[in-house]
Design a protein that fits this description.
By secondary structure, the protein is mainly alpha-helical. 46% of the residues lie in helices and 11% in strands. The protein starts with a strand and ends in a 10-residue tail after the last helix.
């Protein structure tokens, strides 16, 4: 079974770093940003969207945990990466 668990500070740090890197790369590939400005702009925009990190109002940042995972490293990280910062109805969690 896969469960969603609120992200802790360490998980958010890794999520933030990966999000910034991927967002910067996407904007360079799309021709919107230059490589030299991509990380700075990605950090700025991500900080604007998630101004209070894991405590940002209207966002439920979570980790997906798979109880049947064979190794700890496969505990739903791929699912989390695909979900990104989508909003969830937290009343059911």
């Amino acid at each position: 079974m896969i469960t969603l668990v609120r992200m802790n500070a360490e998980q958010y740090k890794r999520f933030f770093e990966e999000t910034v890197r991927e967002y910067g790369e996407e904007n360079v590939r799309g021709g919107r940003w230059t490589p030299s400005e991509s990380i700075g702009r990605a950090i700025k925009e991500t900080n604007e969207l998630l101004s209070k990190g894991i405590h940002t109002n209207g966002h439920f940042l979570c980790s997906a945990n798979n109880e049947n995972a064979v190794t700890p490293s496969s505990r739903g990280q791929d699912l989390l990466n695909r979900l990104g910062t989508q909003e969830f109805d937290t009343t059911i969690l």
